[in-house]
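User: Before I run my own analysis I want an independent prediction to cross-check against. Here's the chain; please return only the structure tokens and, at the end, one sentence I can use as a sanity check.
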Amino acid sequence: MSFIDEIKNRAKNQLKTIVLPEASDKRIIEAAAIALNEAYANIILLGAENKINQIAQENNFDISKAIIINPKTSNKQKEYANLLYELRKNKGMTPEKAEEFMLDEVYFGMMMVKQNEADGLVSGAIHSTSDTLRPALQILKTAPDTKLVSAFFVMVVPNCEFGENGTFVFGDCGLNENPDSEQLAEIAKASSESFEQLVGKKSKIGMLSYSTYGSAKSEMTQKVIEATHIVKEKYPELQVDGELQLDSAIVPEVAKSKAPNSEVAGTCNTLIFPDLDSGNIGYKLTQRFAKAEAYGPLCQGIAKPVNDLSRGCSAQDVAGVIAITCVQAQK
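Assistant: Structure tokens:
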């Protein structure tokens, strides 16, 4: 059974409600139809009902079991605006601005999650990452004991003996541009938890660099070395090593040569990139060259599940992220 099929089965065990604020997009409506047809999520679509139904009918998408809400005409609009004003008045929010924000589908959807009227939100097919995460942080805020919100991808590489039968978590490939050592350590911890929650196996963390065990020395390698020390000191229960080159992290034969005394080198399944440049390039190379499935960017560190889509996503990609969001909401 594939990774995403396992996720969908887990989602069916404890059905959650996911709100999709971009229901004017054909891919989102198709993904909603997939989730409803396969019965692994309840779906709320936000937007103009006539337009949503027209797209569905023209493309034979069955969304009859979805709830459709237009924020501009909803009887919750005033209530949500008042709640937003109370949440943000110390940051300069006015009642008038709050009412304007609540006409926006993403803000409206976040407030539904805040009020437990939905369990999670998926957006990003037509919105930028900042347009998805800004309202999430303003309304939902960060999870308890969380210092940093970060993003990760679940990468599923076909016919691959590395990682967990070809399954990896890559972090942070979508949000933090140039994390310092402390932030890199937090990304490692969060990514490890995400791997274990979604894949169901023990995480083995590789702190990636262009150097292995001091084969090169620079500010860039030192950052990864310090981050590794921080993880080992603060989270001794985690299996982690660094700094490691990619081949040292995942290829056992290379690890024997370059990091012979490491307990995790050669077997890493949770790969932490030193910056957004390398992370973004790394996941796209893996996706295109190895024909890997790439689920993300998924978010970690927000109080409730919110996930950001790539604007180049397909309907199947969105359907997969809906299932992952359901499983995250079961936590």
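Sanity check: The first strand starts at residue 17 and ends at 20.
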